[in-house]
Structures are given as C-alpha cells and as structure tokens.
Specification:
Distance between the termini: 59 Å
Radius of gyration: 23 Å
Number of helices: 7
Largest sheet: 7 strands, antiparallel
Helix content: 25-40%
C-alpha cells in the first residue's frame, strides 16, 4: 500500500504533558474517545481495529500496523462512505512521540494517494491535534487547582521554613515570579520576597478568588489583597505556567 501513497501531510506540535501521559490516549479506548469524539475506539495491539466516529455520524476505519509503547503508533485510515476520497485502508498515519523541553513533541505523517486527499485533511489534523494537546495537558495538570491553592497559602505563611518547603514541593528551582512590585528568580529569592511583603504590608493579606481557568499547561488564577475587615484593596490575575510534570515554572501577577 505504501508504494501507492505518493503524497504526505506532515505536522508537528508540542503537548504540555509527559510522553507516557500522551501515549495513554492511544492505548485506552475511553481516552481515545476524549480526543476523537464519542463512539470512537481503539484496540491497542498490532492488528487491532481503529474506529473514529465523526460529528456527522460517519466513520473512519483503520488497523494498527505498529505500536511501540510511549513512542510510536502506525495505523491505516479510511472512510466507510464511498464518496469520500480515502477508502478503508487507503492511507497510513504515523505518529511519533519524543521528549521536548516543555513536554512531548508529537510528529504526524499522513501518507495518502493524491494531493487532493492530502489537502482535504490539513485543517482536520490541525484541529484534531489541538484538541488532543488540550485533553492530554488537562489530564497531566489535573491537580493544577490544588497546586495553585498551595501557592496562595505560601503567601500567607509566616514561617520561612514552611513557605520554602511548600514552594519546593510545587515549583521548579528556577521558578520565576514577576508582578508590579516584585521580580524574583529561584525559590530562595521568592521566599525572601514574600517575607518582606508580610513584614511591610501588615493589615492586609492575599487570597484566591474564583475558579482556576487552565489550558495547555497555562492557568489563570484570580486574587485579591484583602484588609482585616474583608474589603478588597486590590485585585488581579496570576498567569501560571507549568512544566510538563505539573510543577510551577513561572507566575506573572497582573493587577486589574
């Protein structure tokens, strides 16, 4: 079949999740359906069936040709409906995963028989891989809300030792923090910065507000500086960037 597939579509993205997390979406039918859509399924073995149900009810069918754990999957791909340009078994999809500095690099190659078939799939793969990246990152960072809650707790912790332990547990050693009144690099620098804030800003404290919004390894966390009477003196939003393994790498505080 591959000799007849003279055209290919190539796409590379980086997903904010570890390779093992990303690959689960090729081996678990429930996860597979989370990025392809309800009714889609996969039998994760060489020779196993791949079924993709599109929003209009049509189906794409395939068979797994190669499967290398946490690294690579190859499967055929084609449509049940005869009017569509790729019949079942009529194309070949190869997906390879590699480690990247900020997650997992996914490389897609879709070999097809005609230029028209290739061009037909450009936007579909652009969309579908973005959905895949979103759901895989959401699973990897499922505890982002808890992590950010611990971040805010560190800002009202009067103990340098306890604050340091909290930040060490949730953040990278090179943690970067910036807001209009602070610019720090590294956990120890931030420990001292928070100590200064607690010393010189008596009568007020920082507290989280509202729900965390999170996508692709970046979260928005609203906050307020509140006085002892409960009145908000200032409010704003933290932009929190996570590493692929769920630790905080950077926080930018932006006042409202």
């Amino acid at each position: 079949m591959t000799d007849a597939l003279a055209f290919s579509l190539d796409r590379t993205i980086v997903i904010q999740a570890r390779r093992a997390t990303v690959f689960r979406f090729f081996t678990d039918p429930v996860r597979f359906a989370r990025w392809w859509g309800e009714g889609s399924t996969i039998d994760a073995r060489v020779g196993g069936a791949v079924t993709i149900r599109n929003p209009d009810g049509s189906r794409a069918l395939g068979e797994i040709r190669e499967l290398e754990l946490d690294r690579r999957i190859v499967f055929t791909y084609g449509y049940e409906r005869p009017e569509l340009p790729v019949p079942p078994g009529g194309s070949l999809v190869t997906i390879t995963l590699d480690d990247a500095d900020d997650g997992t690099r996914l490389t897609l190659r879709h070999d097809v028989a005609t230029a028209a078939a290739r061009d037909l799939h450009v936007q579909g793969w652009r969309y579908q891989l973005s959905v895949f990246a979103r759901v895989a990152a959401a699973e990897e960072h499922g505890h982002a809300g808890d992590t950010i809650a611990r971040w805010f707790a560190a800002w009202v912790d009067p103990s340098d030792e306890s604050r340091r332990a909290t930040l060490t547990a949730i953040a990278t050693p090179e943690l970067r923090f910036a807001d209009p009144n602070g610019l720090t690099h590294g956990i120890e620098d931030l420990v001292g910065h928070i100590a200064g804030a607690l010393r010189f800003m008596r009568g007020v404290h920082l507290e989280p507000r509202g729900a965390i919004r999170h996508v692709h390894g970046v979260a928005l966390a609203d906050w307020a500086i509140v006085d002892d009477a409960g009145a908000a003196r200032m409010s704003g939003t933290n932009v929190v960037r996570f590493t692929a393994d769920g630790r905080i790498a950077e926080v930018i505080g932006i006042p409202s």
